[in-house]
Design goal:
By secondary structure, this protein is α/β, with parallel strands linked by helices. The protein folds into 2 domains: 93 residues, Udp-n-acetylmuramoylalanyl-d-glutamate--2,6- Diaminopimelate Ligase, Chain: A, domain 1 (3-Layer(aba) Sandwich), CATH 3.40.1390; 216 residues, UDP N-Acetylglucosamine Acyltransferase, domain 1, CATH 2.160.10.10. Helices cover 17% and strands 30% of the residues. A hairpin with a 5-residue loop joins β22 and β23. The radius of gyration is 27 Å and the shape is flat.
Amino acid sequence: MKFTAQQIAGILDGDIEGNPDIEVYKLSKIEEGSEGSVTFLANPKYNSFLYSTKASIAIVNKEFKPDSKINTTLIKVDDAYLAFSKLLEYYNLVKLNKFGIEEPSFISKTATYGEGVYIGAFTYLAENVKIGRNVKIFPNAYIGDNVIIGDNTIIFSGAKIYSETIIGSDCVINSGVIIGADGFGFAPSENGEYKKIPQIGNVIIEDYVDIGAATTIDRATMGSTIIRSGVKLDNHIQIAHNVEIGKNTVIASQTGVAGSAKVGENCMIGGQVGIVGHVTIGNNVKIQAQSGIARNVKDNETLQGSPAIALNDFNKSYVHFKNLPKIINDINDLEKKINGNS
């Protein structure tokens, strides 16, 4: 899809210097710009690339004044970085702006869907599924019995949504996500074998939640596993049964949250963090990457380490960690001197 400089300037409320009719059909970094692309310049460090880029259009700040001739058409805006971000959002919206029902796909006679939906080929909608308005479900997705999906949600190819799951509005579920699989529940028997405990709960995803590729969220044993509004989950995260993640919390890749843990609002959790089951983490908590959480955490704490301790304590301790061999040698030398003098 092509856009002219005039159209882009209208979207961004910008001023054009150059050819208003020049067309672009792709986005690029300024140092990799090519004919037919639009780029941006926000960091003065990259000013030199503006004079050599082959991009057809460049978005720049209004105060920018070139030192020499520029062949690229400029669109001047108040904030080039924010303007380009807005353009990225618009581009993504256009790219995903699909409608209709592709064949072959299976839609149960008891399933319902709202206006403006897109249901891609080889998608399966089971019994009593309820799909809101403007929902996009890309090919090869599975939507199980009694699932409810709110307006404007996007479900990418290969996602699997198990029965009874409830997903709110304006969510993004990326490829390979599995929501509602059985929680890890087994009880040991007298003969040493493990007996599976039925997992009869569900998963509730509230509004404005983003879930990264290959992340898994298990259904509750009873009740619900709950992801509150505004949560952002990275790729390859495991959320176990009966976990609750508070509003606007963000969690980075490869983190695992064990069963029945409760995470508060506005938390920031780094990659490869492990959180044991049945603990409560307060609001506004920050947990550094590769930390292990084995206790309850109060509001506003910042932790690092495994087991995790306060970040300031960890940094002070690390000075001694790296000097342990020398400290041990010094202690051994002191012991020898003491023993030699006794």
